[in-house]
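Summary for the steering committee. One of the milestones for this cycle was to obtain a three-dimensional model of the protein with zinc ion bound, which we needed before selecting residues for the alanine scan. The sequence and ligand used are listed below.
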Amino acid sequence: MIKFSQSIQQASAFFRRIAGKNKKGRTIPILCFLLLFTFVRPSFAETIAEAPIMVDGQPVKTAYFLQNGHLMVPALFFKNTGASVDWNVQYQSVVVEKNNTIVALYSGKNYADYYTKESGNWVRDNLPTTTTPLSDGTYIPLLYTAQKLGMKVTYNSELSRTFIDTNTPPAEKPIVYYVGDTTEKKIALTFDDGPDSIYTPQILDILLEKGVHATFFVLGQQVKLFPELTKRIVNEGHLIANHTWSHPELPKLTTSQVVQEVESTRSEIAKVTGINSFFFRPPYGSYTAGDIRVLSEHGYRSILWSVDTLDWSGLSAEEILAIVNRDKSPGGIILQHDFQASNGKLDGTVQALPKMIDQLRGEGYQFVTVQNLLDGN
Ligand SMILES: [Zn+2]
């Protein structure tokens, strides 16, 4: 049972509480309340605090506001349900797709069109409220959109929290890898954000000398800048992998933009090395279920890590080694970097690397690429 009317009551109770502190009588607070809603509503809406919404049992922080008693969320929030979210320039509409249903909500309008594969038809619905463009995105009514896409929405008034059951079959739940096979003492070194003319050659020299194969999650824009280094990575037996073109935060992009970032990088790597790599790591480890699902439909496997060296922050070799020593495990994936915009920040990475290799080898670890770690070859 959804009780959004209760939320309006809570909102008006909140204003009554504020108003109650004014001892000059009831007229002024009521006037203030009206003024607030009449003239300042857009900025009021934008300043609403974030709150978590539970999606399949996981909290997802989102901006929101109430409009005519309806919970409004940025359209991109729906990527967290596994949906695709895109913007149609021609129709000025948000297009959300999931569970064989497409919903198109038009900016500034109080109607929407939806399409189900079963019916094969577009049908128009009147909306109980208006799709609202704000500076941080287009806000759409959560309840209407979720229900149209075959999801279940409930509101728990005791917890003041909204729950969404996305109805995603287990087989369609996206997979993200943090570790490989944990039964063997294999471990993977990974280097992100390169190639770069300062650090990548130093790291490659050490790996070559030690006879270690690692995995490089490269940026398309860096591959374009440094094709020879990209070739060197591949020629020396390392696994080349995809880290997007320009290192954006995927949750802030539409589904088409996510695909563009990753596919343009794959084709740049292929142009330079002849290799189509389908290993992918989201920048900042930041992603939505919808991003991983659409990339997996394009053939990509999404790789995170089990050991975060935090080397990008300028840690010393000793600090990096202490973290690796603490968090290493069979099947582990170690996150390091080979490009950092400010000079000197990765000196610790380079200094720690030979010691890390010797130390882990001494403990019986074998260094493999992420591909070997996941597939055994
Ligand atoms: Zn990165």
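Key point for the committee: The first strand starts at residue 51 and ends at 55.
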